[in-house]
Amino acid sequence: MATTNDIGDRGEEIAATHLDEAGYEILERNYRYERNELDLVCRRPGADTEYVFVEVKTRSGTGFGAPEASITAQKREALHHAARGYLHEHASEGAPARFDVVTVMLTDRAPEVHHYENAFWAS
Q: pTM of the full predicted structure?
């Protein structure tokens, strides 16, 4: 039986492949800043200066609700904190950035992937 970490890792791999095929450049995977983590840090197609911080949510069923429903205000604040840390460490404070969410639903069929651009804004 797959563990929660296995499911999450598989979802992140599927999300990274999806973004790569859409033309995104993957800059970092599992970037950690203090106690917070960004699943993927990307650049969007055609905009070399805009950073895209991606939260990946993976589910193998709907028993815990839709994947995107688990992104609480507290989680958004943690992502914002990590994004600020990333921009600071890369001397890019003030650079254009956005937060996207990629959800992956794993079933018996092919994974169902949804990409939500500008899913939320920093507070």
A: 0.90
